[in-house]
Amino acid sequence: MAVLEGKTALVTGASRGIGAAIAVRLAAEGANVAITYERSRDRAEEVVAEIEGLGRKAIAIQADSADADAVTGAVDRTAETLGGLDILVNNAGIFPKAPIGELALADLDRALAVNVRAPFVAAMAATKYLPEGGRVITIGSTLADRLVPSGFSVYSATKSALSGFTKGIARDLGPRGITAVLIHPGPTDTDMNPADGPRARTTLATSAVGRHAAPADIAATVAHVAGPAGTFITGSAITVDGGVNA
């Protein structure tokens, strides 16, 4: 029997990359899945079709994660359309990169809205639906803990903030039997950070295993935490980086 049979998940920012891999993996484990996307409607519909091909229900919801009302609406629509919400995966994020003197205040504000405020808002909205055994899983970054190149101050700050968020909601939701986990991916082969991109050589020089992660590597960890094996994992950060931060 699929370990997530009968469960419903919402994965934000899941039209491609890590988010899409997570959505498909949760469906493969038995869950019905809603995803959000900002602009990539066609790619979001491809993910929905892949999930439906696994015999699961799926919907794609257009939502800009910088818009708090859109985030709340996505949570509500998931629960209303798919009959509840058991697993929230906060995956949507943006990746501002520039030295501190070259950043605009708008860059900071949008990064905080998408990378920090949106997970808070989604979790707030989800609390009225999550049952005992529910999960809040948030995707961070190894750049929250260690920076080698310059230009990542804003991104690192937003991902670092998710550590306190995860520990705090683990305390808030623990009495209800709901867990909260932060997963820090390392360099992963996505559109945003391709394995053959300009930073690839630097990345491989810091990796213990000598390669980028595949999105499926991150999705496998999410599926583990979301399933029965994750019942006693909460308030923790799990690093999935091939030894980059070792």
TrEMBL record:
Ketoreductase domain: residues covered? 7-218
Signal sequence annotation: none
Does the entry feature the keyword Acyltransferase, yes or no?
no
Q: Does the keyword Oxidoreductase apply?
A: yes
Q: Which SUPFAM superfamilies match?
A: NAD(P)-binding Rossmann-fold domains
Q: Name one Pfam family in it.
A: adh_short_C2
What are the protein's GO molecular function terms?
oxidoreductase activity
What keyword terms does UniProt attach to this protein?
Oxidoreductase
Family under the similarity heading: Belongs to the short-chain dehydrogenases/reductases (SDR) family.
Matching entries from PANTHER family are given as:
OXIDOREDUCTASE, SHORT-CHAIN DEHYDROGENASE/REDUCTASE FAMILY (AFU_ORTHOLOGUE AFUA_5G02870) (PTHR43639), SHORT-CHAIN DEHYDROGENASE_REDUCTASE FAMILY PROTEIN (PTHR43639:SF1)
In Swiss-Prot or TrEMBL terms, this protein is called SDR family oxidoreductase
Which species is this UniProt entry from?
Amycolatopsis acidicola
